[in-house]
Each structure stands twice: as C-alpha cells, then as structure tokens.
Amino acid sequence: MTEAARTRRIAEGDFYCAEGVAKFNEGDISGARASFFKALAIDEELRLLARQSETVFSLCQISLYLEDLETLQRMTNRAKALYQEASHLPPSSHEKAGAYFHLGQCFDLANELQLAEDVLRQSSELNVVVGNSINVAASWMHLGHVYDQQGKYELAERAYLKAHEINLALGRLDVAENNMLMAKASRARRLS
Question: Among 178, 144, 177, which Cα is nearest to 160's?
Fold first, then answer.
C-alpha cells in the first residue's frame, strides 16, 4: 500500500471514529457501534495497535451500555490479544503506551480487575517514558478506580492523589479537583 493510500485509510478510520462518537451522543447507539466496527476493521488492516485498543475500548463501553455481554466478552478477548501483541513493542514506543492506556480501561469495564491493575500500572510507567503526562495522570486515575472496586481504598486514595498532583502541574485544575474528590471518597470508604 502506498503512503498516500495508507494516509487515506487512516483518515477514513478517523471519520468512522468521529461518526461513532457523534452517533452515540445523538442516541443512535446501533449506528455508533456500526461506525466503531468499521473503524476497527481499518485499524486492524493497518495494524495500528493504539488505535485498535482505543476502538475496542469504545466498543466495550457501548457493549456495556447495551448490556451486550457477548460482544463485551468478544472485545475483552480482542483486548487480551492486543495486550499480548503490544507487549513485544519497546518501552519507548508511543504505540505501546497508547495501547496499554486503553486496554487497561477495557479490562476495567470487563471487570478483569487484576489485569486492569497490571496494565494500568504499566501504562503509567510507559507514558512517563514517552512523555505523555496527560495519560500518566489518567492511568493513575483509572488505577484508583480499579483499586476502589477491589476494596483497596488506601491504594485508591494514593492513586487519585498522584493523578491530582500531575493534573495540577499540567494546569488541568478541573480534572485535578475531580481527582481530589475521588481521593477523599476513597479515604471516607477506608475509614468507615
């Protein structure tokens, strides 16, 4: 495939992802799902691991919303395969860091909490290596959520506070405040 043809396919995948988000926001959930499946086919064809992971995450969200457990399981299995594939990439790979970030969220949605914990912890480390501070903070925030679900409230509080510190440093005050509220809620659960 020529570089121009590849660029066109990437743009087509971008269109389907944007269309999926728009349809979801309009309440056309079936249309959103169809758009994301079209995007996933392109991402798979072009072997774009981070984009596949993000699209699989979107499909996990929609499946959970629709209570479609069969598709959720299928997407979780796809996420596991992507995790194995991405594990062979070097730690300095933006593709690996992006893939792990979205895969950790997939495993969280699928209630595979130990796997989510492991992948999100790796995601925070990988995103430090590639310099993506926003995803470092988001990884810690999602890790806090996973710890909360596991009843590990002290670890959840610490994870939310890490996300808070990073978001403060980035000037993302609204997000940092939300992280602080989640930390306080974890502390309250721990102390109750």
Answer: 144
Domain locations in the chain? Answer: 1-119, 132-192
Contact between residue 164 and residue 179 where contact means Cβ atoms under 8 Å apart: yes
Confirm whether 1-119 and 132-192 share one CATH topology. yes
At 142, give phi and psi (nearest 5°).
-65, -35
- The answer to whether 97 and 132 are in contact (CB under 8 A) is yes
Contacts of 49 (CB under 8 A, 6+ apart): 82, 85, 86, 89, 95, 96, 98, 99
CA nearest neighbour of 144 among 155, 136, 132: 155
pLDDT tens for 56-83 read 999 999 999 999 999 999 999 999 999 9
Q: What is the pLDDT of residue 91?
A: 86
- Phi, psi angles (nearest 5°) of residue 87: -65, -20
Residues 6+ away with beta carbon under 8 Å from 36: 16, 17, 20, 55, 58, 59, 62
Cα distance between residue 106 and residue 88, in whole Å: 19
Contact (Cβ atoms closer than 8 angstroms) between residue 111 and residue 137: no
Give the CATH class of 1-119. Answer: mainly alpha
CATH fold label, 132-192: 1.25.40
Q: What is the dihedral of CA 8, 10, 15, 19, to 10 degrees?
A: 150
Beta carbons of 76 and 113 less than 8 angstroms apart:
no
